[in-house]
Amino acid sequence: MQIPGLCYISIGLDDFDALKYGCTTHLATYILNELPKKLRNTVLLFDYPNLVRLNPSIPWKTRGNGAIAIRLGIPCEYASDLSVLMQIIEELVEDYINRFLSKFDVRVPDFEPGLVIARHPLSNDLASLYEKALTDVVVLDHSFISKLMRKGFMVSQRYGRRGIIGASAAIMWLYKGRDYTFELLTYRSKKMYGKSRCIDEESVKVFDNLTRGESFNNYDYKENRILITPHGLDPILYGVRGETPDAVKKALSIIKVCEPLVAWTVFRSNQATDDHAIYRVAKELNPFKTCRISGVVAEKPAIVRGGTVIVKMFDATGEVLLAFFKPSQLFNIASVLDIGDYIEVQGQVKLWNNLQVVHVEKIAILNTSITYKCRPPKCPRCGKRMEKKGLGKGYRCEKCGVIIFNPELECKKIVRGIAVKLSLPPPHSQKHLMKPIDRYGKERNGYSYELLPVTITTKIIEPLEFL
Predict the structure, then answer these.
(1) Collapsing DSSP states into helix, strand and coil, what is residue 466?
(2) What percent of the chain has pLDDT over 90?
(3) Is the Cβ–Cβ distance between 354 and 391 less than 8 Å?
(4) Which residue has the higher pLDDT, 256 or 21?
(5) Which residues contact 440 (CB under 8 A, 6 or more apart)?
(6) For strand 309-315 and strand 44-45, is the pairing parallel, antiparallel, or unpaired?
(7) Is residue 400 a contact partner of residue 410, using CB atoms and an 8 Å limit?
(8) Mean pLDDT calculated for residue range 108-114
(9) Residue numbers of the domain that contains 307
């Protein structure tokens, strides 16, 4: 992949989505289309831009908690002194903010953008950063920033706030071979912000049928509901996810929209991979960690306010409280669990009045306990059904006074109506990182990097309508 005179760098971006209208992918699309003009049009990508979702449990996350990594081959004159490249990118970001975010007056106090650049090869010492930011809490302090800088990262002084955690973690997603998918994001005209999105529903079904097995979560047929459109005021018109760039790009010619589509970008992503669901045991759980954990149901399920089902589970290291919420529709399964059932769940740890509770997003029933319904014995003298008198007190016939200890009971096995299987929420309730049923068996472990022209991955069709 080496080309003489070309050096390799990654740009990391995070938290440029403001309260209502912003979107870090929108900024990334702008940079992808404008940066080559600043670098004499000698820019090549060595990967599709990366949309990297991070820990969904972090309370201060942005809406989708997605960070961006743009991986470039650029003239070495720009890579030898990263401060020159940083200045160029900062000018593009500032132009974007002045023309887009400021127009909508959405630069709020919690606007915490991060911009970093890393020269390749990346440092082995930062290999764990992505997984930490995906599954746990990363603290932004002086030592964190110092370590980045020692390992060849340049951190923007203008955009060096909390978002540098996500920005640097997105860059380090490259480091380890992992499963991935692709997403085509399309963008609407700035004149349409705040208005309902206009997409032909039947064309979404056509796309779904034509790309069956190549794309997923386009349409919920049980709810008769389009799944490719966001619901906020951000600039995305629709996004389709799939296994290859060609599969998702088919949407551009199949899905019909009745409003301007002004730009598009294809991202490689960790979405729909379950990459956040790492195996833990009970004693390893802490607030805001993600997990996949198995154990035995310890008590009958309890239903609390709002219809949420609470289940206590234990493994060899301790007890875990599990919460199943109505929108996930997993509460129906949780409510019929019984003591002794062996289950596996994945989710995120939250605090409920100082109690750690796993908010469950998937459940697999691995084995079910056998339950019996038993009747008291009949009196050997008169044949009437006896009554239990209490623990250790045996059974007594109320008619003739006969008492029997440890009798043989009449027991029948109960058919419970719960199956050994994996259960997920319906498609419209599945979060970004959650692997849908359609992707099981399609997992990959690594990506073949190749040099790509920028125009293959992105296009701004109507520049005046984009910003």
Answers:
(1) helix
(2) 74
(3) no
(4) 256
(5) none
(6) unpaired
(7) no
(8) 75
(9) 282-370+414-432
C-alpha pair distances (Å), 405 with each of 335, 387, 392, 397: 35, 12, 8, 12
pLDDT at position 328 is 86
Q: Is residue 406 part of a domain?
A: no
CB contact at 8 A, 54 and 137: no
Q: What is the CATH number of the domain that holds 172?
A: 3.30.70.2200
Which DSSP string do the residues of 376-444 spell out, in sequence order? PPBPTTT-PBPEE-STTS-EE-TTT--EESSPPPEEEEPP----SSEE---GGG--TTPPPGGGTT---
* Amino acid 396: pLDDT: 93
Tell me, yes or no, whether 386 lies in a domain.
Answer: no
**Helix, strand, or coil here: 324?**
strand
Question: Are residues 202 and 87 part of one domain?
Answer: yes
CATH code (residue 308): 2.40.50.1010
pLDDT value of position 90: 97
| H/E run at residue 94 | helix 82-96
Task: For Cα atoms 244, 248, 252, give the angle at the middle one, nearest 5 degrees.
Answer: 150
CA atoms of 265 and 249, how far apart (whole Å): 9
* Helices 24-38, 82-96: crossing angle, 10 deg rounding: 130
Q: How many CB atoms lie within 10 A of CB 268?
A: 22
Confidence of residue 343 (pLDDT cuts 50, 70, 90): very high
Q: Percentage of the chain surpassing pLDDT 70?
A: 96
Does residue 453 belong to any structural domain of this protein? yes
* Residues constituting the chain: 467
Q: What is the pLDDT confidence band of residue 110, given thresholds at 50, 70 and 90?
A: low
pLDDT at 20 over 80: no
What's the pLDDT at 233? 78
For 393, residues 6+ apart whose C-beta sits below 8 A from its C-beta are none
3 state SS of 116:
strand
**pLDDT tens, position by position, 50-82:** 999 999 998 876 666 899 999 999 988 888 889
Number of domains into which the chain is organized: 2
Q: Output the pLDDT for position 177.
A: 85
Establish if 170 belongs to a structural domain: yes
Alpha-helical regions (H) of 232-314: 245-249, 251-254
What residues contact 121, with CB distance under 8 A and at least 6 apart? none
Q: Domain check: are 209 and 254 in the same one? A: yes
